[in-house]
Amino acid sequence: MIKPLWRTLGLAVMLAASAAAQIREGEVRVAVRDSDGLIVPARVELSGRNPVFEAAAEVGLDGQVRLQRIPFGAHVLSVRQPGFADHVEVVEVRSAVPLELSVVLGIPGVAAAVTVTGAAPLVDPAEPAAVMQVGRLRLEEAAGTTLGRSAVNVVTTLPGWLLEANAVLHPRGSEYDTQYVVDGMPVYDNRSIGFAPAFESSEFESVNVMTAGMPAEYGRRLGGVIALDTRRVGAVGNRTEFGMRGGSFGNAGGSLRHQFSTARTSVSIGGQGGMTDRYLDPPSVENFTNKGTSGAFNFRVDRDVSVRDRLSVYLRSSETRFLVPNDRLQQAAGQRQDRFSGETAFQAHYHRTFNPRTLGSFRFMYRDLSALLWSNPRSTPVRVEQDRGFQEAVFVADLTVEGEGHTLKLGGDFRSNRVREEFRFGEPDEFPGFDLDFRDRRTNRDVSLFVQEHIRWGNFAANIGVRYDGYDFLIEDTAVSPRIGLSYWIPQADLQLRASYDRVFQPPPMENLLLSSAADRLRGVEGVEESVPVPASRANFFEVGLRKPFLDVFRVDVTHFWRTFRNMIDDDVFLNTGLSFPITFDTARVQGTEVRLDMPAWGRVSSSVSYSNMIGWVTSPVTGGLFIEGGEAEELRDPGSRFAISQDQRNTLSALMRVEVHDRVWFSTGVAYGSGLPFEVEDDDDDDDDGDDDDLDDMDLDDDMDIDEDMDRDDDFDMDDGMDMGDDMDMGDDDLQPIPQAILDRINFQRQRIRANFSLDLSLGIRAWERQDRSVTVQFDLRNATDHLNVINFSGAFSGTALGTGRMFTVQTRIRF
């Protein structure tokens, strides 16, 4: 039992001082004097290439500069003032403890020679984990996309990440295991656009991504970590940024941001909104009923209460309203399904510098998230309604101690979630009655503790830690998870070798978990498979790799990983509503190789290439989910079956190149390729369907419509050429054919895989006007220039059909003043 432990750990967390939670940012304080000890009003600049960023400020009347929210890593510090020799050195930011430096500027010809004359290093020899980073420039210049996808599209340019239907991110074959960290505060719920309001890139300064070598402070969702850092406030004064976009599929949107800064206080306020005629990934090429609108507001205040104390407050509120796209049969029936999701989040962060080597902080977060779905009486094959949500309170505390060659960090958190679920469905001819009317409310409590050490000893570096998790919701479970990441830098070869092991404990996903685990509530409901509580997942993650710079121009990362799971988390999509219910497979194994090439800048050219080769499989039985009786559903409850994971795309490639053809004009091109996902084709032997589409007893969740007899693999379609609709599914007019032929042409039924997808993206940017910090920029984007029909998912046991975006043209405008 972990309940008695909560009181002890909760008190420990409350009383502990802490440091910056899971944020990978620090602070650099620079004092500038001349040889006589007088203050020099110099300009201080800090720049990095991993990630690409710049920060600058003028020395104040007190002779100091404070550069805040600096990414971890090795950067170049430059101090310049006319009449003095430039001072340039490499500085390392390893923790949230402020790095204090003293610079003495000398007279040219007399001052000692500078130690650094080039750019910041491409590789950080003291970082054991391979952290992939995308800076503000890449986020700003990313090609325009449909509503809610700007941030996730950037993540998919990195190796190991797959984007499935409705902007669901899959790190290294995992389903629910993506953890977002917003300004140091982790959130663990499903952030796909069908579940919650999206994070848009205009709100963030940078994106940091990890898939292995996780420090012990990270837990609960570890398939991959996406850290989003909100926009930094620049120099003292006022700044405003306004953006607009418009283009194909009725896409239109805008954002407004204002920043104000004084010597001790900074304020940032922003808002954004948009609309589109293509929100979710539709099941049919006609893109029926797919409108969406969104709006968001955010506010942040940072205040230096004293030299040692700092307080930050962050508020974010957003909502999305959209329609569920119909397939052809649903459109003909007159179906309409509406969905809504809204979220309000508040964060408060206080930290104190106890001494030059010790920093502590305390964080609090409160979130309220709601999601609704309602259907009209013409919905088919079932009419669905849902009202779910949660209220979450989080307390986080930790402590950081910076020593010579090492950084010690320890802390923990306490989380409480009040979860509610209401779910109803029934056959259209039974309106207004329902076959299932489920309602439940529960409270979830989690607690964690961790200790970790970052060791830097010559050319050797290590992250060593251990984490404790206690979970109590529908089940009770605890886990102790050791973590270790090692690296060794070989100077003669300019090469870093690294290896890591992560023991992982992942509680069941919260979304629709009450219904997925409600065996007693589902027993006896006509046509519905019974389920048992979804268990927690445990896994072992291994990785080996190398990182090497070439000619100080580009960097290559090569990684091989393998992961083994017990109770691997996945989901079961309910028809094509976009609703999904958590499930687990008994065991799983995923392994693969990834390659990343980064060239931050070579003259006027920058580029990146990511490649992943992956294979994964799982074994039954399946626990959880909302399956309709018949076909694959019954088989999945039985042990012994082994098949590919639904995210088993063997080859994935992403490439991007940017060329600055003029100081104010640039051109970029991007390529994305995926070899295709697997799907399950149901055997007729498993089907007892009598052909009555309206009978819920005979309906199979594996398909969006009842076409089982027509899809007989022996008689009705050709394995070599795809599916031969012939006389079986021709309803007299191709427009009425349940599955359009264009989609079937993209399916390889013999291999039971979707054919390869491909997208060529083009962008042209022009800075039309610029004067100091003020500018007007126009960007023209063309996504999927070849208009390739990309089938993301095809009807199977765990997903409906979903199509990628066709050719899309966008114009973006950014105004700064």
Summarize the structure.
The chain is mostly beta strands. It is 6% helix and 53% strand.
Total count of strands: 41
Mean pLDDT: 85
Uncertain stretches of 5 or more adjacent residues = 1-20, 110-117, 684-733
The 3D shape can be described as: globular
Q: What fraction of residues sit in β-strands?
A: over 45%
Percentage of residues assigned to helices: under 10%
Determine the oligomeric state from the structure. single chain
From the N-terminal CA to the C-terminal CA, the straight-line distance is: 58 Å
Round the Cα radius of gyration to an integer and report it.
27 Å
Count of alpha and pi helical runs: 8
Largest sheet entry? 22 strands, antiparallel, barrel
Structural class: mainly beta
Question: Please, could you describe this protein's structure?
Answer:
This protein is mainly beta. About 5% of the residues lie in helices and about 55% in strands. It has 8 helices and 41 strands. The strands form 7 sheets. It has a 22-stranded antiparallel β-barrel. A 5-stranded mixed β-sheet has the order 8-13-14-11-12. It is globular.
Topology:
Blueprint: H1 3-15, E1 25-34, E2 43-49, E3 52-58, E4 64-71, E5 73-80, E6 87-93, E7 99-105, E8 132-134, H2 136-141, H3 150-155, E9 161-164, E10 168-171, E11 178-182, E12 185-187, E13 204-210, E14 224-230, E15 237-247, E16 251-261, E17 265-276, E18 292-304, E19 309-323, H4 328-333, E20 337-355, E21 358-375, E22 383-403, E23 406-426, E24 436-457, E25 460-472, E26 476-490, E27 495-506, H5 513-516, H6 519-522, E28 537-550, E29 554-573, E30 580-602, E31 605-624, H7 632-636, E32 642-644, E33 651-662, E34 665-674, H8 741-744, E35 747-748, E36 753-754, E37 757-771, E38 774-783, E39 791-793, E40 802-803, E41 808-816
